[in-house]
Amino acid sequence: MTSSATPIANDSAASPPSPPGPDSSPGSANSHRAHLLHAAVSMLNMIVIALFVLTFIAQPFRIPSASMEPTLLVGDFLLVDKMVHAPGNTSARRGMLPYRELGCGDIIVFRYPPDTRIHVVKRVIGVPGDRIRLKDGVVYINEQPQQEPYIMPGGSQPDAFRDQFPASLYTDPGVDPQWWAQLRREVRDSEYVVPPGNYFVLGDNRANSRDSRYWGLVPRENIVGSPFLVYFSLRQPSAAEVSALPDDKLDHQEDTASSPIGFARWRRMFRVVR
Prior knowledge:
This protein is α+β, with helices and mostly antiparallel strands. The chain has a single domain, classed as Umud Fragment, subunit A. About 20% of the residues lie in helices and about 20% in strands. Strands 1, 2, 3, 4, 9, 10, 11 and 12 form an 8-stranded antiparallel β-sheet that branches. Strands 7-6-5-8 form a 4-stranded antiparallel β-sheet, with no helix packed on it. The longest helix is centred in the first third of the chain and has 33 residues. The N terminus is likely disordered.
């Protein structure tokens, strides 16, 4: 504490200073410290709550590739619900928090099986027990063709491996060798049956997505959650083009605005993900 904290000192320069009373500057210092302590405790509470939310309930991610166009665009920032598919959450099962089983059509964020440090977003196409087949780019589940209004429209050249899963010959260099060998052992009658505890996923931009066709299944324990909201979207080039597998990972990086007006897709803010 210093005398400059109170303006009265300047007004009483001509007279001798009076002795401090019991409720003067020491009390002010104590009050100031109390306010600082209260602010610090409030800030700590906010940090704890934020860490709790980010750890157990929701987590932000950014879309860096075109593999989920047109549903998710390059530059979209997502909030991911980590509770909606949490199988070990007993309170969720009692109805205290929303919970539902994973189903076909759900979009999920998961730890990429070949490298669990990487997060990837795709759409569930097959759940345990489903018989999966792609014919001329059309997904068949249990011999029934699927209506998929969310996928990117055509425009790409036919691909014997990509559009005819499971193919009899695997000549695409992007296919994981272990997955290739597994398919050759397990395909029956031109179909692949999704085993228990695993999920078959595809990108909505089917022609430009490295997904279960190339590297295999997503184990249940790898699933982080489902994106439910685009809370912000930077305007970035979002052309549908084939990316290497590492480019499909999600990250937490921030981008700097390059334009005072057009740097964001304002209409996509707070858009519900479906």
